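Sequence decides. Our protein:
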Amino acid sequence: MAQPTDEWRPLARAWREQDLFNLPEDGNRYEIIDGSLHVTPPADDDHHELADSIRTAIGSAAPDGWRIIREIGLGLPSGNLIPDVTVLKPNTPRGVRWHQPQGVSLVVEVESPTSRRHDRFTKPGLYAEAGIPHYWRVERGDFGPIIYRYRLVKDVHYDLVGTIGPDDAVTVDEPWTMRLDPSAWPR
């Protein structure tokens, strides 16, 4: 068992975006929620393959100018989060380390055992508070991925607008019209 070292000490104040620049680039996902640091271990290859498949499916139908990016930082009013997939609106600045929510149309979180509670309970509220119009949560079910699609209501919370299962090839309209077929994605 690894012993703690004297090299790292918790901050005596709330965490801020600038503090993230001092953390190691070790594969962990470092996020700030209400001033607290949340560390998630690196996801497994199945998680990344599923996120890549979702990104490809969204991107194949994307109108000109839209960008679909995996694991970029979002600077939100209550902290800094890194969704698995983010859809950026046209004319969103490039080369930005922490994007502002006004430039985001959709965020997608792929659940992992280490992120389940945050993806189901914490992050939707933070994304809604930031005014992000659409949120998808993807579970890796026994028979394939299941997408839970949410739409922002009155800039307050998300309402579930539908689910897509592994046997449901469906056309959706957020953030543009596209056909999704989770049966073609890895489990």
Helices lie at 17-20, 45-60, 116-129. The mean pLDDT is 91. The chain is about 20% helix and 35% strand. Residues 44-184 form a domain with the tt1808, chain A fold (CATH 3.90.1570.10).
